[in-house]
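Thread: "does anyone have the structure for this chain?"

Original post by V.I.:
We have the sequence but no experimental structure in hand. Need at least a predicted one for the grant figures.
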Amino acid sequence: MLPMRAFVFAALPLVMVTACGETPDMAATSDPALEAAAYPDILPQNALPKAPNGRLTENSEAELEARGARLQNRAKNL
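Reply from O.Q.:
Generated one for you, tokens below.
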């Protein structure tokens, strides 16, 4: 029973401290245009837009190294 009592005594101050925080005024940040906007349609998963594939190629590493070298040269010239 001691571990449960220790947990309660440890958790009680944490709960009390979180109750002391100030909450932001939510009405002040409300945008009437957002409230009047319609909800978007719910689409099935197969109708969702696809992420582009093939961002990395076999030349990506060489291109990144070349870009890094150009940036370092540019920094030296500055």
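V.I.: this helps a lot. Helices lie at 2-19, 32-36, 60-77.
O.Q.: and The chain is about 55% helix and 0% strand.
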